[in-house]
Amino acid sequence: MTGAPEPERRAEVLDLYKLAVEMADRVSARRGTANAFFLSVQTTFIALVSFGFPRLSESPWWVSLAVFLAGFTLSATWWMQLRSYRDLNTAKFKVINKLEERLPVKIFADEWKELKRDPIPAWRERYAELGASERTIPVVFVAAHLLLFVGRLTV
């Protein structure tokens, strides 16, 4: 790109910018699909365990432990995958923001700046990121699996 006339450089940067935005959008779509998958699997798993709870309480304790560990592993995998998607999107948006420095408009940087400075008084100081709320869901499922396991041990 060095030595190229300014309009040509801007066109190259714009093409790279479009590609980066499209790739970030695809990562977000994959993240949504992964969330739907894990939510479906976890909900089904909890339902099956709950319906089988009377029989599960008659099983040896290690069966309940195995069920708990399976649920815990699903939750931990989900949480780690969400963290990975967050890290990937963070890197992608750093690149997008750098590319925006070479463009006349900074759509994503300006949007983020607006979100950060628009607090909702008495509730939150800044924009609540989707990742923060979606990473609590696997933790809730860990708690549900733990409650089922402890409930089995106390029956």
Kindly summarize this structure in a few lines.
Helix content is 81%, strand content 0%.
Reconstruct the topology from this structure:
Blueprint: H1 6-51, H2 53-58, H3 61-100, H4 107-116, H5 130-134, H6 136-154
Helix pairs in contact: 1-3, 1-6, 3-6
Report what the structure shows.
The protein has 155 residues and is mainly alpha-helical. The chain has one domain. Helices cover 81% and strands 0% of the residues. The protein is built from six helices and no strands. It is elongated, with a radius of gyration of 23 Å. The mean pLDDT is 84.
Terminal Cα span: 71 Å
Strand segment tally: 0
Order of helices and strands: HHHHHH
What's the number of structural domains? 1
Strand content: under 5%
Rounded mean pLDDT is 84
User: Low-confidence runs (pLDDT<50, min 5 residues)?
Assistant: none
Radius of gyration: 23 Å
* Helix-strand category: mainly alpha
Total count of helical runs of at least 4 residues = 6
Helix content: over 70%
Shape: elongated
The profile of the biggest β sheet is: none
Characteristic terms for this protein:
elongated; about 80% helix; mainly alpha; about 0% strand; about 160 residues
